[in-house]
Every structure is written in structure tokens, then in C-alpha cells.
Amino acid sequence: MKIPPRDGPPSSGGATGPPSSRSGGPVSTRMPSSPQSGRGPVPSTPQIVGRSITDQIETVLAQFLSPAVRKSVIDCGIRQAKVDPLYAREGDLRRLLVEVKRGVKLFVRDQAQLDRCITELGELDHAAPAPREITIDVRNEEDVLRARSAGRELCIEHLVSDVLQTKIVTAISELGRNIVRYAGNGQIIVRSLTSPMRAIEIIAQDHGPGISNLQEILSGKYRSRHGMGAGLRGTKALMDAFDVKTAPGAGTTVTVRKYLG
């Protein structure tokens, strides 16, 4: 599967600002100060979601699904995300949206409609972390561990499940070790993407000798004593998108993505 074009600059409207109710007014997440107590503001309370967020989700889904199907998708999302539909924190809201997006994919078959639905649902998560990237220079095994930590850090920020996190970190390890063994040095870039779909992207690039028999390696017909073939094929199997650009003497760039729903 080829990597689709990279995202443009993140939209200025999605990453900051308080959630809004259906009428457009902000939903308070902090209680006012109590003048009698003299202790300052009361600690922040969970954001009240209730019908506000479910109404917003239903408004989006109404463009794509029948009433019965969208109710089923929302109810199933609440159960799978294990959230209280009346009181939820930002992380709970994000888990709910992830589960709703997963349900939508079962019923919206037209790809353009699906992309638009997923994008509009993502815009409901006003507190979602902004896209960012971490670049690690790779020369030895210690640097590979640093790259793994960077990938884990982004996964935690984006509430990635343990299963997907393991796949992402494993892919970073395989690509990083290939750099150390075959090129001597290079870079691992780990970035979070939010559009058109949430994803973690890994780019492993070096200026080593390149790969002269890439197709043989990916077909499973070749494996070096260091396991080069197994590493690339294994990474491809773990990821949702995989692309290699290489030429003898011109180095190698491997780009992979794991979609987060």
C-alpha cells in the first residue's frame, strides 16, 4: 500500500478552545471561586458531556447514517469506550470518538463520504493534541531506544491502545536497527497526524549503500544473516501503509503509518 500525500499545516480551528454546547455557548470545566471559603477556585471538575456531545455526534452522523444505525453506533461507542455519557473528561471524549469512528467505518461504504464523516467527528475533539514530530539521530542501539521512547510518547499523547502502541514501537525498533546495521547512521522521524485520519507516521532515512534487491527481500525470498528481510517484511505486516524509496549508493527512506481510527 502506498503512502498517501502528507498532511498540510494543521487547521487553526481544531486544537484549542473550549468545547461548545449545541447552542454555541462554552461548557464550563471549572467551578467558580467560593467567596466564603477564602481558598480560591474549587479544583477542576469533569467536563459535563451528556446530551451535548452525543447530540453533536448525532448531528454529524445524521448526514451519513439512518436514525437507527447512528443510535446503534453511538450506544456501542459508549459501551466500548467505557465512558459515562453524562460526565466525561477529555480523554474519555476522545476514546468515545475513536469508537464511534470505528463503528462508522462498518456502515459508510463510500470513501469520500467516510473521509468527510471522520474529519467532522475529529473536529468535535477540541482538546485533541496538535500534530507534532520528533527527530532522533540514529547511530547505535541507544539511539534506537530513544526513538522507541519518542514513539511511545506520541502514542500516550494520542491515547493509542496498548496493542497499536506495541506495533508502532516494534516497527521503530526494526527500522532503527536496519539503519545501525546496514547504513551506520541515519534518522528516525516519528510524527503524529490528525488529517485526513489520525495516524502515527514513522520515517527511517539514511545515506547508506541502498537496497539493490528490494523486491526479493519483500517477497520473502531473501534473508541476510542479520535478518534484513525479516525486519522489513515484519514492519510492512505491522503497519497500515508502507513505502520504500531506495537506490544503490543513494540511501534508503522507509515511510510507514499506523492509523488510529
Secondary structure elements and their pairing?
Layout (H helix, E strand, L loop, with lengths): L49 H12 L5 H15 L8 H18 L3 H12 L10 E6 L2 H17 L4 H22 L2 E8 L5 E8 L7 H6 L8 H11 L2 E6 L5 E8 L2
Report the count of strand segments: 5
- SSE ordering: HHHHEHHEEHHEE
Low-confidence stretches: 8-51
**Alpha-carbon distance between the two ends:** 17 Å
Describe this structure in words.
The chain has 261 residues and is of the alpha+beta class. The chain is built from 8 helices and 5 strands. The protein has helices at residues 50-61, 67-81, 90-107, 111-122, 141-157, 162-183, 214-219, 228-238; strands spanning 133-138, 186-193, 199-206, 241-246, 252-259. Strands 1-2-3-5-4 form a 5-stranded antiparallel sheet, covered by helices on one side. Strand 4 and strand 5 (252-259) form a beta hairpin. Helix 6 runs antiparallel to helix 8. It is elongated. It starts with 49 loop residues before the first helix and ends with a strand. The model is unreliable at 8-51 (pLDDT under 50).
